[in-house]
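ARCHIVE CARD
Drawer: 12
Card no.: 0347
Subject: one protein chain, sequence and derived structure
Cross-reference: see card 0346
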Amino acid sequence: MSHWEFPGSEPIDAVIELAGGSVALTAKATDATTVSLAPSRFSRNADKLLSEIRVSFDNGRLEVVGPKRTGLWRGYPGLDLTVTLPAGSRCAVRTASADVISTGELAELDAHTASGDVTAAAVTRNLQATTASGDVRADETGETADIRTVSGDIRIARAGGDIQARTASGDVSIATAAGSATVTTASGDVRIGSMASGRADVNTASGDVVVGVARDVGVYLDLASLSGSVTSRLEDAEPSEDVTLEVRCRSLSGDIRIARASAAGTDRRQAEPAG
């Protein structure tokens, strides 16, 4: 194992490029940024692996960079990276198959991976996550979130600001959306447990859609499905003024259901990251 320590309690910028293995970020109150690297289980040539990693820290910027490999580092053995850094830091991570897990509170997280999962606790400002077959999970997102997968699922416990989510075959589950939500899938299902303001703009091909509207919230509905069913279970006596939410849903063959949040049928346990 290799270990580095850089003093300082102010938020930093971190740039990480690692092929396989894992990336674990812990953002907390601390007086130093620490970096630990160890070969993943079953990795061979550990000394060579560690010697090819460049770790540097200068003027509030941490860089952990592995060797460049063609074909998305295909076949490259992995390293387990653990970084502890001050709360409120900003991180950009690029991996091939490595999972990315952050705990604590980051200001920004920009994570791109091919087959790895991305799991975040709290990102107070901007979250960007892109993966092909990996899943994306977050406890809480802040001002904006832009999440894209191909076959992976997207599960957000609470979106504190505007969120955009796009998948091909993955499902999208947002337990609570405090801002606007723009969601596009092909065959994936979409579940938004509760919304009170802004706009829900949901488009699917064959996926089903469920949107929960918070109680006593005025809502404007624009719903259409070519061959699927469209159902609104909101009470007949909708508020006639102070409409704060617009829900627009389009599907080719999927079903669309709108209900009050308590009856929307979104399983919060499905939206929250495990552990």
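Annotation on reverse: The radius of gyration is 21 Å. Residues 19 and 73 are 6 Å apart (CA to CA).
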